[in-house]
Design brief:
- By secondary structure, this protein is of the alpha+beta class.
- The chain contains seven helices and eight strands.
- It has a four-stranded antiparallel β-sheet with strand order 2-3-1-4, with helices on both faces.
- Strand 2 and strand 3 form a beta hairpin.
- It is globular and about 50 Å long.
């Protein structure tokens, strides 16, 4: 008889889009933790109030985990919240592939927009990069890196990149670099400077 191999749990980050902003789509973090635990996930913790949760699961399909979480949030809170689920190694790879000098910048100057699928280059052809300098962006693996020296709130390039021509049909959510670095730590995606 062969013994069935145990499935090792993977640590994931769930990135929720557009919650707890301007009084709409209120998702208290304690309730979000309960929703995740109710789905059978372990080691659940949240980070900040902007929709970052870390959990472990034996399931190996991040897309299925995201859809399951979206359905559970809608059932619990009564509204849909787009969710992306990514694992620690992916977050670490995103951090390591950053084309900007993250260690030299303030967290509010550098952002990562995570996508549910890789956007094609054709989505960005209408954006005149030179017109937005010194702001810049670069595409990575299902992520867009945005350097906005005055912060995202004042970023004209950030506005252009959030338009439907760029994001239509793709779930996208943005985190500042401090949050990216913390999520790398929380998911065990690696230690050391990013």
């Amino acid at each position: 008889m062969t013994k069935k191999a145990e499935t090792k749990a993977t640590t994931y980050a769930a990135l929720l889009r557009g919650i707890n902003v301007g009084g709409s789509k209120k998702v208290p973090m304690a309730e979000l933790r309960s929703v995740l635990e109710g789905l059978g996930h372990g080691d659940v913790q949240t980070y900040l109030q902007s929709g970052n949760a870390v959990f472990s699961s034996a399931k190996q399909d991040p897309v299925a985990l995201a859809r399951e979480l979206e359905a559970a949030i809608e059932a619990h809170f009564g509204f849909r919240v787009p969710c992306l689920v990514v694992d620690g190694p992916y977050l670490r790879a995103v951090a390591e592939a950053c084309p900007f000098p993250a260690a030299e910048l303030e967290g509010k100057q550098l952002h990562a927009t995570f996508f549910s699928e890789q956007p094609g280059a054709e989505r960005f052809v209408a954006i005149d990069r030179a017109a937005y300098l010194p702001e810049e962006y670069r595409l990575g693996d299902r992520v867009l890196y945005l350097y906005a020296p005055d912060g995202l709130g004042r970023s004209k390039l950030g506005e252009a990149l959030a338009k439907p021509a760029v994001t239509k049909g793709i779930d996208a959510t943005t985190r500042n670099w401090n949050t990216v670095a913390r999520l790398v730590e929380l998911t065990g995606g690696g230690t050391g400077a990013i």
